[in-house]
Amino acid sequence: MRIDPFGNQAQAGGRQRRGFGGIRWWVLLLFAGYAAYYWFSNQTVDPYTGEKAVIDKTLSVEDEEALGLQAYQEILSQERPVDPNSPAARQVREIAQRLIAKTDEVEAALAAETGQPPQYISRGFEWDVNVIQSDQVNAFCLPGGKMAVYTGLFNVAKNTDAMAIVMGHEIAHALLRHGAQRMTQQKVGQIVQMGGAVSGMDAGSQQMVMAAMGYGVLLPYARKHETQADYVGLMLAAAACFNPQEAVPLWERMSEASGGAGQPEFASTHPNPGTRIQNLQSLMPKAMEYRAKYCREGGAAVGAH
Length: 305
Prior knowledge:
8% strand; two-stranded antiparallel sheet; 11 helices; globular; 305 residues; single chain; mainly alpha
């Protein structure tokens, strides 16, 4: 635990210069004001959802893609990709190709619904997908389109449609720029933490403030990101001719694989399985409409099966 140099000096001098509790409140207000200004001045409207997103305007899509590539290279240097000619790798690449082919069309459709212009950031992505040998039930898509599926996911996904729903969800994170949003939120947290330290707040109080920020702001935003990715990913999978109705049994299996109920939802970065399934069920009519409208096999749109 760090010693509070400001507090020690004030006690040594026998004077209290910082207001109630030895804290410089004007410093806290100054940092709080800057954090609020930073937050609101970096707000934008997401074309996929029509909701406000906070992305640092100094963080370009290209910067984000470079960070994604760096992280991807580090992961592949530590993990073991399977043979790219293996059936699993070929299957995953085929799914990815079908989903990627629909990104522009789905973005245009969703942006039209929200009244926002599409951004088409994925046109600059250099897509790459690998299958990684691991028991993890997981997949990811980093900014710039760098993707990986862990072999442990195959036993839970069970079929191509369910795998496409997971991969569509991960692609949606990249399309929605959730990585940039998380970095922006972390900067807000750093501003708040710095304000607490400079103001003379003791370590225990700083931890309480950061915990309150985590439960009140950061974790709800993380859960919101998951819900947004479920929404966009489901529409993407449906438009790519996969069956969106596989989403509900998929997440039921996901819940079983994770051992059922975990920590309370308010303390988690993800919605609990029950909440997630309810959200997906409510989205199913729209997903089936997207499948009927945008799924084309043999050059014509096909209806839902």
